[in-house]
């Protein structure tokens, strides 16, 4: 009995499943002698492996001790992976174990079987199939509009609202999937890619993160979610905005907390940032409409040149308070990794919205300044 148990513990299949991924594929023989490449995420980088197709078959073995995302690439011209040109691509999830692939004309339409993670992803796709169809229909509806209709602000706002509603429904479906599958890498993947974002409800997403299996939390995606949650506790919706102080163009020290009692849009920008400059007319419009109704703006520039900053303020007609964050200390505290970026604070200094662009800002102000 002991020998049988030892044999089972040391069996090749059990040992293999611990730290390797194997993929055996069957393709059309017209692809003979061509290389097929497997690219997968390993920690924070990409790892590339390949195999030559012989008699319509290929076999790739790689070291793998945890789930990952991967793509298969095949250039039907037989050129190197580095050469430019269209590649036949199949995207999928992998984990330690053995999988098989069947494909006829294109690997993009391949069928891969043999891994639990593939079954879990299939279940996820079934759950999101209906909402994805609705999103695709909305995109097609918008694409069919005339250029004049697409440029109509009311039409655009209507589509944005409908899109936001559908995306909210999709997120609810993902939350339910994550909650019901806390040990699945698929849950972690979509928690990271779609739920743990700048507009997330931090306590809700933190609850989902805490429910995950420990091995998922230590995954690179798990660490990314944790990092966003930590930042969200500083700049998340409902959080009291952290106070800061800098100087105006006139050299006067000004604190964010001095604006309490008003709705304040904290706007991070720079004179060299073209998207920021293009957004400024919308800010000017919102400021003029609501400045006498308890709303103001506090600009925080990350410019290095005070002269360029002051010139841009004058050129764009920015009549609200401006601060220069040359050390980027404020930007770092607020997790600013790209601009333009803004935060709308209520009268108590709590963050109630983020990244309000174009008409979205005026729509939000219309809602809160009733």
From TrEMBL:
SUPFAM superfamilies (alphabetical): Thioredoxin-like (SSF52833)
GO annotations of cellular component type: cell envelope
GO molecular function per UniProt: antioxidant activity; oxidoreductase activity
Any one GO biological process: cytochrome complex assembly
Domain Thioredoxin: 235-370
UniProtKB keywords: Cytochrome c-type biogenesis, Disulfide bond, Redox-active center, Signal
Principal localisation: other
Places the protein is found: Cell envelope
Name of the protein: Alkyl hydroperoxide reductase/ Thiol specific antioxidant/ Mal allergen
Species the sequence originates in: Pseudopedobacter saltans (strain ATCC 51119 / DSM 12145 / JCM 21818 / CCUG 39354 / LMG 10337 / NBRC 100064 / NCIMB 13643)
Lineage: Bacteria, Pseudomonadati, Bacteroidota, Sphingobacteriia, Sphingobacteriales
């Amino acid at each position: 009995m002991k020998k049988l148990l030892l044999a089972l513990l040391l069996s090749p299949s059990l040992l293999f499943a611990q730290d390797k991924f194997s993929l055996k594929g069957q393709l059309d023989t017209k692809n003979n002698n061509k290389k097929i490449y497997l690219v997968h995420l390993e920690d924070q980088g990409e790892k590339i492996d390949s195999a030559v197709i012989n008699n319509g078959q290929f076999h790739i073995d790689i070291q793998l001790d945890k789930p990952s995302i991967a793509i298969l690439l095949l250039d039907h011209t037989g050129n190197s992976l580095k050469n430019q040109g269209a590649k036949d691509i199949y995207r999928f999830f992998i984990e330690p174990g053995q999988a098989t692939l069947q494909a006829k004309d294109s690997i993009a339409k391949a069928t891969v079987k043999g891994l639990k993670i593939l079954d879990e992803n299939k279940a996820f796709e079934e759950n999101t199939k209906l909402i994805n169809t609705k999103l695709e229909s909305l995109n097609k509806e918008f694409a069919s509009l005339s250029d004049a209709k697409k440029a109509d602000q009311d039409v655009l706002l209507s589509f944005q609202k409908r899109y936001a509603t559908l995306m909210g429904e999709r997120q609810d479906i993902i939350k339910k999937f994550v909650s019901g599958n806390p040990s699945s890498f698929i849950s972690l993947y979509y928690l990271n890619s779609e739920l743990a974002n700048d507009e997330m409800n931090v306590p809700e997403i933190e609850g989902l993160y805490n429910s995950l299996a420990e091995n998922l939390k230590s995954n690179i995606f798990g660490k990314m979610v944790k990092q966003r949650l930590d930042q969200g506790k500083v700049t998340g919706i409902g959080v009291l905005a952290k106070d800061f102080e800098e100087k105006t163009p006139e050299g006067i020290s000004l604190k964010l907390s001095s604006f309490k009692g008003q709705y304040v849009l904290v706007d991070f920008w720079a004179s060299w940032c073209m998207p920021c400059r293009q957004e400024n007319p919308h800010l000017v419009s919102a400021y003029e409409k609501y400045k006498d109704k308890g709303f103001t703006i506090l600009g925080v520039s990350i410019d290095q040149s005070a002269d360029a900053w002051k010139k841009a303020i004058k050129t764009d007609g920015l009549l609200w308070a401006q601060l220069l964050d040359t050390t980027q200390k404020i930007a770092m505290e607020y997790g600013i990794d790209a601009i333009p970026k803004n935060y709308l604070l209520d009268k108590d200094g709590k963050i109630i919205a983020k990244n309000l662009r174009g008409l979205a800002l005026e729509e939000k102000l219309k809602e809160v300044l009733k």
